[in-house]
Amino acid sequence: MTAAPETTRRSFFGKASTAAVVGVVGTSFVQPSLADDEAPVAAPVAEVAPAPAPAPPPAKANYGTFPVPAADEWGISGKDYYADAAKVTRHMQYATQMDKGTPNMDTINKNMKKEMVDFVSFYRRFSNVAGKQSFSTLYTAINVLAGHYTSYGTKFPVPEKRRKRLYQEYAEIEKNIKKGR
Question: Strand, coil or helix: what is 87?
Fold first, then answer.
C-alpha cells in the first residue's frame, strides 16, 4: 500500500503560507548601491527649543467671603418673603463657597438643605410669590445645590463649574430682590 499524499486542511494552509512568505520575500529586493551614485546629504538639524514649563493650575475664582451663619440663624420666618429669600441666598452663598476641610461642613450643609426645603415648601404655595422672578431663579439655584447634596452628599464641596453658575444666579436673585421682583 502506497502512502497517500497528505491532503489535510492543516497541510494545505501550511504549504500556502510558506508559499506566500516566499513570494513576498522574493519580490522585495534591495537596490544595489553603486559608486557613481551621490551620497545622500543629511538635512541640517534645527535646534530644538526646550519644552515650555507646564502652566500652573488656574487660581481659584474668588466670589467673595461670606459670614458663617450662627446656629440660631437657620430657618425662615414665613412673614416676609424678601427677608427670607435674602437670608436663604446668603446662606447658600456661604454653603457654596466652602472648600474641603471647612469646619462643620456637614452640619452647615444639612442645615442648608433643611432651610432650602422649608423655604420652597412654604413659599411655592403662594401664587403672588411663586410668580416672582426672584423666586423662580432662587428655586433653580436651590434645585442645583440640593441636587449636588443628593449626588455627592453634604461632606463634598461644590465643584468650580457648578459654583460659578450658582454665583451668577445668586447675583441675579439679589438684583431681583432689590427691585422687588
Answer: helix
